[in-house]
Amino acid sequence: MQIRHDWTRDEIRRLYRLPFPELIFQAQLAHREFHEPGEVQLCRLLSIKTGGCPEDCAYCSQSAHYQTGVAREHLMNPSDVVAAAERAKAEGATRFCMGAAWRQVSDGKDFERVLEMVRGVAALDLEVCCTLGMLSESQAARLKEAGLTAYNHNLDTSPEFYGNIITTRVYEDRLQTISHLRKAGITVCCGGILGMGESDEDRISLLEQLSHLDPHPESVPINMLVANDGTPLAHAEELDPLVMVRAIATARILMPASRVRLAAGRRQMSPEAVALCFLAGANSIFTGERLLTTPNPAANDDYRLLETLGMRAAPGA
Ligand code: SAM
Ligand code: DTB
Ligand code: SF4
Question: With a threshold of 0.70, does the pTM exceed it?
Answer without folding.
Answer: yes
